[in-house]
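Fold it.
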Amino acid sequence: MDAATVGAVLALVGVLSGSVVAYVGKRGENATARWNSELDQIQEERDKLREQLATRDRRIEELLEQRLADREEIARLRIKVVELGGDP
């Protein structure tokens, strides 16, 4: 084999290995971008669920306060009924 052939073969190997490296690198870049996109979506869903949970907790607190107020009103009305001579 003469020097020109060896040089051409080495150049071909270099080009092919460069192509493989570029292909693998691009696949890795795409995978990383896809992974980041998935993580962003998961974080957005988590934030929405946290907001829903906070809203639900506030609503539960309101209902518990209303329940307590209703019980106080019922007790007050029973006392009033007894005072007026009725049977509660």
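The helical segments are 3-83.
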